[in-house]
Structures are given as structure tokens and as C-alpha cells.
Amino acid sequence: MRVITAIGAIFAGIEVLYMIMVLAGANAGNAFFQFIKSLAVPLALFFPGLFPVDSPSLAVILDFGLAAVFWLVVTGIIARFAGR
Known about the structure:
This protein has helices at residues 2-24, 31-43, 56-82.
């Protein structure tokens, strides 16, 4: 049960880290940035582009913030059922 919750927290953390790096203007050519992006984009699933907005900052917050919340909620539900 704790393992499932930890996996969800790690996935959400990757999404939040990528979101912070993009909003802070991190160097997109940096190897660490590219590594985090290569993890965060597939984990965002169907959320990127789900809500079309004009502001790029708001788009990043919606796309990756919703994905982070999704991973926390889904893994929390799975952990609850696995614990029974």
C-alpha cells in the first residue's frame, strides 16, 4: 500500500518539478531538464492541450498540475483498494 502511494508521489513530484523548471525559465538545452522532460511529458498522459488557454504559463500549470493531482488521486484509490 505504501509502495503504491510512493509511486504516485514520485510521479506527481516529477510533474511538479518539470512545471517549476518551465515556469522559472530553466535552460531547455540542459541535460537534467531534458531528462525530467522525458519523464514528465509521457506521465502527463492526456492532459496537455486538454484546456486551450492563451497564456503559456497557465497552460503549463493546467497540463502538468492536473497530471500531478491525477497521479496522487489514482494511486491513492488503488492503494486503498489494495489495502483491503
